[in-house]
Amino acid sequence: MCGIIGYTGTDGAVGDVLLTGLEGLEYRGYDSAGVAIADESLAVHKREGEVAALEAALPDTGLGGTAGIGHTRWSTHGPPTDANAHPHTDCAESVAVVHNGIIENYQTLRADLEAGGHEFTSETDTEVIPHLIETALATGASPEAAFREAVSQLEGSYAVAAVFPGSETVYAARHESPLVLGIGDDGHYLASDVPAFIEYTDRVVYLEDGQFARVNPSGIVVTDAQGAVVETAVEQIAWDPEDAGKAGYDHYMLKEINEQPQALRQCLRERVSELDGTVTIDELAALEPTGPVQFVACGTSYHAALYGARFLRAQGVPAQCFLASEYTVDQLPVGEETLVVGVTQSGETADTMSALRAANRVGATTLALTNTVGSSAARECDHVMYIRAGPEISVAATKTFASQQVALAMLAATLAGETPTALCERLRALPDQVQQVLDMSNARAVAEAYEASDAYFFIGRGYNAPVALEGALKMKEITYKHAEGFAAGELKHGPLALVGEQTPVFAMVTGDASASKTLGNIKEVEARDAPVVAVTDSPAVVGQYADHVLEVPSAGPRLTPVLANVQLQLVAYWVANRLGRSIDKPRNLAKSVTVE
Ligand code: M6R
Fold it and tell me: Which residues are within 8 A (CB) of 544 and not within 5 positions of it... i.e. 6 or more apart?
């Protein structure tokens, strides 16, 4: 998804900061990149493809200047070409603009601007912004007034930043797309996300919807839509740059899979007492008991929500799950007594934010379960619970999924008012058990055995059903191979027609009451010559039914699926690795999907 970086400083570091920032934003997914430097005139450089392609096209003499903006673009309006890459300028090159989000009224604006003589050079919605600024400048408006005038005409979602020739100021505004400001010693930063400038500063100010920022080498001024200065709080970010590096792993994904024990320890820390079976989530102290719970989420987070909803129901709390993009408050019983929980690692996913905003509008109580402090979800919901997984750079969500599962187990305990002591004990033991799986896993050998298969199927029942869905999602997104996950009982209602000797079936059979039924499903696929890989905590029994076994320790019926998922993550990783895929940045995908 698009990423913005901006810097203004008198230390001659603009070029370096922008390029480092663009690299720090790569994890969001993108297909072109560019920078604009404001000196006496504007210098704009942009290229289709990776940041490395842009770097190769830059002048050997460096970029110079005091103020600059940069952008990684993930195509929405128009294909990934040099012309469609940001920054965009007006006819006279009097301003350069970068934008993240979607301008919904751009066609009307563009038609009016073209009728007024403006010539466009791209297919993007963004290009209307510099032309609107140019129009305002022509009336004698100052750069700041022209920027504000242009932004006031935009409908849709945007984080936008602009620089003008002969000026050391970067102007910025946001509405429903993230933007964070960084306070440095020699200059000031702005970006879509903190990793873009964490190497330089850990002091940040989060811009709110409707706010504008004037960023100079000497300081930052934030104003509201009317131009009144807003007092801002400077927050200290706990991530250090080392956290965001690969630490010797070939891919962030493998690093993040291996970070799961630590992520879960952080998630559980000071929240679970195994002595008396209590769970205390400090952030949720003000959350009153509510009525039914509705989860809204997308992708991997939706799978975590399915798992969590089952946990809640098991503890007597009615809970339903909705794909955020399908959530419609007018067709559902949602009112003041409903707790709507947005499960979202980034806290910025447009579909999830849209569902949460709809829930806010009808007066529901909203809760963000997120990894990202200061994200839109965290700021706009009534309550927030952090999953504390640490930064996740790989597009494929791994440690955040495990942390969401554990956080949701704790949320269930909080909403139910009590939780069995045995479950608390199991939760506390879980990080070590994940480490055991990582230490003993034979997933790489299994991946090698099946890397040439045509397709992969994943089945599981109960708490394992969402893990089957997640196993398939992980496999397809990083290997580009066909993969599908099913509740095991559904196999015989259609998908069985696809099963054969080239389609291994991964069956999660962990110690719950439904295990014997899943064994029946294994027999069904074996009868169609499909190889079976059992992921199980009972290898002696289940191994008799399978061609390969991926063993996990037992963590009880509810938590063993968390361990089974780790094995599936590793299988997907090693198949993708053997196939030479772009594991951390799979084609067509973005880390943070900020368009609906
Ligand atoms: O940031 P979110 O958790 O809201 O993201 C939702 C999905 O886009 C995300 O979980 C996606 O499915 C994963 N990156 C896939 O690994």
Answer: none
How far lies 199's CA from each of 23, 246, 559, in Å? 11, 15, 37
pLDDT tens profile 185-221: 999 999 998 889 999 999 999 999 999 999 999 999 9
Are residues 212 and 339 both part of a single domain?
A: no
Number of domains in the chain: 3
371 lines ligand 1 (CB under 6 A): no
| pLDDT tens by residue, 454-494 | 899 999 999 999 999 999 999 999 999 999 999 999 988 98
Query: Using CA atoms, how far apart are residues 86 and 74, in angstroms rounded to an integer?
Result: 10
In a domain, 436, yes or no: no
Q: For the segment 140-174, what is each residue's pLDDT rounded down to a tens digit?
A: 999 999 999 999 999 988 999 999 999 999 999 99
Q: What pLDDT is recorded for position 7?
A: 98
Domain that holds residue 183: 3-240
pLDDT higher than 90, residue 594: no
Domain-ending residue, one of 188, 215, 240: 240
CA distance 575 to 552: 20
Cβ atoms of 85 and 58 within 8 Å: the answer is no
Same domain, 200 and 260: no
DSSP 386-425: E-------SSS--HHHHHHHHHHHHHHHHHHS---HHHHH
CATH number at residue 272: 3.40.50.10490
420 and 446 in a single domain? The answer is no
- Residue 298, ligand 1, Cβ within 6 A: yes
Say whether pLDDT at 242 is over 60.
no
pLDDT (average), residues 252-273:
92
Residue 246 domain-assigned (yes or no): no
- Res 419: pLDDT: 73
**Residue in 74, 296, 301, 589 to alter for ligand 1 test, most ligand atoms within 8 A of Cβ:** 301
Atom of ligand 1 lying closest to residue 346 CA: 1
State which of 177, 251, 295, 349 you would mutate to test the pocket of ligand 1, scoring each by most atoms of that ligand within 8 A of its C-beta: 349
Does ligand 1 lie within 6 Å of residue 419's CB atom?
Answer: no
Kindly report the CATH number assigned to the domain that includes residue 178. 3.60.20.10
3-state DSSP helix/strand/coil % of the chain, to nearest 5: 40, 25, 40
Do residue 281 and residue 211 come from a single domain? no
Residue type at position 75: S
User: How far apart (Å, rounded) are the C-alpha atoms in residues 561 and 567?
Assistant: 10
The predicted model scores a pTM of: 0.75
What is the Cα–Cα distance from 329 to 346, expressed in whole angstroms? 23
Asked if residue 371 is part of any domain, the answer here is: yes
Q: Hey, which residues are catalytic here?
A: 2, 591
Inside any domain, residue 333: yes
In this structure, the answer to whether residues 216 and 95 fall within a common structural domain is yes
Give the pLDDT of residue 139: 97
Query: Average model confidence (pLDDT) for the chain?
Result: 92
pLDDT at 135: 98
Place of tokens 């934003």: 25
